[in-house]
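One chain shown below:
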Amino acid sequence: MASVVSIIPIVLLFILMLGFKMAGHKSALLTLVITVLLALFAASPLGMIAPEHAEDSVIALTGWAVVEGILKAVFPILIIMMAIYSYNILGESKQIEVIKRQFTSITDDKGLLVLLLVWGFGGLLEGMAGFGTAVAIPAAILIGLGFKPMFSALVSLIGNTVATGFGAVGVPVTTLCNEVAESGSASAAQICETSAFAIIQLAPLFIILPFIILTLTDKHNLIKNLIIALWVGVISVVVQFVCGYYLGSETPAIIGSLAAIIAIIAYAKVFARKSKVQDKETFTLAESLKAWSVYLFILIFILVSGALCPPVNAFLKSHLVSAVHLPVLDSTFKFGWISNAGLMLFLGATIGGLIQGLSLKRLMVILARTTVNLRKTVVTICSLIALASVMNYSGMITAIASGLVAVTGDFYPLVAPMIGAIGTFVTGSDTSSNILFAKLQAHVANQLGMMGQSTFFGMEGGQENWLVAANTTGATGGKMISPQSIAIATAACDMEGKDGEILRSAIPYALLYIVLGGLMVYFGC
């Protein structure tokens, strides 16, 4: 009964967005209200609330959960806002036209252009920043190149999947391993093995997803699409595996995406012939730097402020940090004024805009206009993250996972990725899904006797890491249809109110993704 009641918010969200075609902000807000009512009147009688909160007032617990969710929404909202702001600067300065011509000067093959943006450039953004940048920026550029909004949103969501497990310089997998480590801090060997396992589980998708992206772009050249997908996919998975197994979780998405970009450009130069009627354009270094200055400075700030520069990262995270204590929840929300990715996007975009000839006053007008246009997206994301927080503290998410474990038994490895996908669908974050379910996956591995050597590397305890890795494997698939990701896509593609339409288009690919992940996990046990 607890599992049935707990799944109501997820089902309701689907019904409102798909069945009633209700706008995303309205669907999310209404679902939040229903979730709060379930938490108030059903969670305690059904024994869903965790023991540490059993003595707390249900009203206080739920109320502070909503507050925590709204506070946590600040980070993704800032990042989305600044990602769209950066693109709007390019439109205002007309430098987007130079970027468009540079992309088309590589090749006039639309499939390669789309793959370069959503798989290569998008994966690079995910690896360095995460938090929606890999959907917002590539989708906006695709529209600037003349692609339709729905297409741009869909391929950006499909492309922003496998890289999310190692997004934001490997935070999701590192968090996953720390959650199951007895000391609370995983060893380098455990992180490396879990990273490698996740990449193995995702291996077929490194080829299938590029093929889908290419075929959505051009349905008439399936053989060519398959060849390109094999070329780019094999290079991506091999490079990511080597990085994951030998270096850990920080670099697979970054270095793997750079390798994919090189592979795509190499294929375009060698095999993709340009149209004879199309003149080959050349650009000076100064012209290229000016056109790309917005994204160049964004990448510089993200790299310098991130885990790739530990001293700078440590300084930023320890200075100008505001802390809000949340009673009852016994947690503290911290906001780093100089360490958040939103600030890095803002600084990079603003400096780039100044280089492109826009005045500071004009840039602030663009920022204000961007903020006003994203008001519905703000409501959507605040509602969704608050909903996730309420479901977490009321025990709904744990009840859903426990129900799946009870039903599946020895076939649990087949649905292990689904657990991770549910976590990401609800929370919008691979990292949050790993926090929620890492211990559950390890506990089930223990129940199933999966504590011996791994099939692939023979490391003691490797089977447990294999099932733990399944959580992030599924979480990357859930990212494709997470309402938060879809809210970002609607904002980037100026498709307010079309959330349900985008969700409907993405669901078949997400289901295929999760099923393939489940099969890989099951047969690898």
Q: What stands out?
A: The beta strands are 321-326, 331-336. The mean pLDDT is 87. The longest strand covers residues 321-326.
